[in-house]
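hey
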């Protein structure tokens, strides 16, 4: 199945299923070859961004925002061919959403305050020198912006 098909299908789904599909797709594209901890951290950044409202109201809007996450960067013709990793990414997305739905003091935050991440072998953005929150596997998580949940 292709990325374009998945994103189109997400437009047909009700919430919260569409958001789970978009978050799972992002975890797959950004971190399918990383540890569970690294995948959870990627999901956390996307969830924190959704809470802020700066990149959109839905997870699908957040992850497809221009040049922010892989779903908004890679070709819509890209095939998601590793079905085992795909299923794992979807499950992890749902678990991450459940964790994030907890009150802030009760949720587990792996990369507290991280608003961005980068894979050193793929990117060298102008914000790469922002304060580091954590390095997990091949990703560095950074606090480029102080994101607050919208009120």
């Amino acid at each position: 199945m292709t990325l374009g098909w998945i994103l189109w299908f997400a437009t047909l789904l009700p919430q919260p299923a569409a958001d789970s599909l978009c978050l799972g797709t992002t975890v797959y594209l950004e971190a399918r070859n990383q540890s569970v901890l690294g995948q959870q951290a990627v999901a956390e950044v996307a969830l924190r961004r959704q809470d802020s409202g700066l990149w959109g109201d839905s997870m699908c809007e957040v992850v497809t925002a221009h040049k922010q996450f892989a779903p908004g960067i890679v070709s819509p013709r890209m095939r998601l061919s590793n079905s085992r990793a795909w299923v794992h990414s979807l499950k992890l997305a749902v678990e991450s959403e459940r964790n994030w739905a907890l009150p802030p003091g009760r949720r587990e935050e792996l990369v507290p305050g991280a608003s961005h991440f980068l894979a050193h072998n793929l990117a060298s953005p102008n914000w790469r020198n922002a304060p580091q929150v954590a390095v997990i596997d091949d990703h560095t998580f950074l606090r480029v912006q102080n994101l607050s949940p919208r009120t």
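The longest helix spans residues 83-100. The longest strand covers residues 132-136.
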